């Protein structure tokens, strides 16, 4: 029997969103990752773009979101600003019926607007490691309620030289956080990071 979205213990608002996007059944990575993340496990996923990896981590993040907390509950690190914008839009679309507040942050954009949005309240921040670390060091990211950290396209982030930034970010997040790592390839440096 094939797994359906309705078998994945997702809230009705999420089932409605994926159905409106025309998704009829979960992709293999979604079938593997969604139950594991909902069970609270850390995950490592070997996945290329086009496999549905974004929904694989976004749906569990949205399922776990507590709107009453009013502080950041998930961070997603991406190698490029284009991917940050794309992932933030996907999370916004999947979470549209639960009113999720998502912000994309990346270098080359003024800090003022990003900091203003953060102060107003954001549930999920998606961004490139350099800008994310700057915002953390300026104490503009309250991570005390962080539940999940995602490293998207981890091999790309490593090849772009972001390893030190990523390690500094990891050190500044609560040890109790859940971590999900996605990478097209799993070379030894990625395994060590995982
Ligand atoms: P991604 O690998 O996350 O970049 O997703 C690739 C494309 O597949 C995006 O256009 C998604 O909207 C789409 N997609 C993700 N999950 C599903 C699904 N279960 N059924 C159909 N399309 C999907």
Care to describe what's here?
By secondary structure, the protein is an alpha/beta fold. The protein contains 9 helices and 6 strands. It has a 6-stranded parallel sheet, sandwiched between helices. Helix 2 packs parallel to helix 3. The termini are far apart. The mean pLDDT is 95. The structure holds adenosine monophosphate. Adenosine monophosphate binds next to helix 3.
What is the fold's blueprint, element by element?
Elements: H1 12-20, H2 28-38, E1 43-46, H3 53-64, E2 74-77, H4 81-94, E3 102-105, H5 111-120, E4 124-127, H6 129-137, E5 148-151, H7 154-159, H8 163-171, E6 178-183, H9 188-193
Parallel strand pairs: 1-6, 2-4, 2-5, 3-4, 5-6
Helix pairs in contact: 2-3, 3-4, 6-8
The chain binds adenosine monophosphate (AMP).
Adenosine monophosphate binds at residues 23, 26-27, 30, 49-55.
Mean of residue pLDDT values: 95
Question: Order of strands across the biggest sheet?
Answer: 1-6-5-2-4-3
* Ligand identities: adenosine monophosphate
Q: Ranges with pLDDT <50 over ≥5 residues? A: none
Report the sheet with the most strands, covering strand number, pairing sense and barrel closure.
Answer: 6 strands, parallel
Distance between the termini: 32 Å
Count of DSSP-assigned helices: 9
Strand-residue fraction?
5-15%
Radius of gyration: 16 Å
- The arrangement of helices and strands along the chain is HHEHEHEHEHEHHEH
Instruction: Name the shape in a single word.
Output: globular
